[in-house]
Design goal:
A hairpin with a 2-residue loop joins β2 and β3. This protein is mainly beta. 14% of the residues lie in helices and 43% in strands. The protein has one domain. The protein contains four helices and ten strands. Strands 1, 2, 3, 4, 5, 6, 7 and 8 form an eight-stranded mixed beta sheet that branches. A two-stranded antiparallel ribbon has the order 9-10.
Length: 216
């Protein structure tokens, strides 16, 4: 999750246990249109960040995930810089380097949900499509699931004046449609020019995931 604002660009060493590995995706909205940028992966880690001991999140690229195969339970180390524009990232730190898997204890994964283990390639998320996910459900039950996703959302309010923007965070689920933990939460609205609003009704999610079976 994004932390406090910081102007510090120097990299800070970190080390700790991975609590979650999820896709790191940015969403651009323009009224009823939307597009995604697939940035990499978000690691939620419990351990040491510089001289602090706490939970923190680090953004990594797809190449790092392919190389190391990060998963829940791994003990990892590296260094990263604080995110400069926290409206555009779902993590507290990014530009990670010197990444290492220090220990892979082989944690026993509980019967899903939530789904843990190694997350798939970003192309798999793109192909699966997502449904909106209630923020409270995400925080309470989906933080460790590879199918959960916290997205920074950039909204162009007026496409004729693209400098007029708004920002927020939204939570989504890429998991099986039959998941017993899933809760959609309220319908989301997207602001537009001259005070107009577009409601992203349930049919949008149904259309985005209609190519999948209930257990896929």
């Amino acid at each position: 999750m994004p932390g406090k604002s910081s102007k510090i660009s120097a990299k800070i060493p970190f080390q700790g246990e991975i609590l979650s590995v999820q896709p790191r995706i940015r969403l651009l909205r323009s009224f009823d249109q939307r597009s995604h940028s697939y940035l990499g992966y978000a690691l939620l880690i419990r351990g040491g960040l510089g001289r602090e001991e706490r939970d923190f999140s680090v953004g990594t690229g797809r190449a790092a995930q392919s190389r190391h195969g990060f998963q829940v339970g791994d003990r990892v180390g590296g260094q990263a810089a604080y995110v400069q524009d926290q409206r555009m990232e779902p993590v507290e730190l990014y530009k990670a380097s010197g990444l290492q898997v220090l220990e892979r204890p082989g944690v026993t994964v509980e019967i899903p949900p939530p789904w843990q283990g190694r997350p798939p390639d970003l192309e798999v998320y793109r192909e699966r499509g997502h449904r909106r996910l209630d923020r409270k459900t995400y925080n309470a039950k989906c933080l460790s699931c590879i199918w959960g996703c916290l997205m920074p959302v950039e909204m162009i309010i007026d496409q004729w004046s693209p400098a007029k923007k708004s920002f927020r965070f939204e939570t989504f689920c890429y998991g099986p449609r039959s998941c017993s933990l899933y809760r959609p939460g309220p319908v989301r609205t997207v602001p537009g020019r001259k005070g107009m609003k577009w409601r992203e009704e349930d049919w949008v999610d149904e259309d985005a995931t209609s190519h999948r079976g209930p257990d896929d």
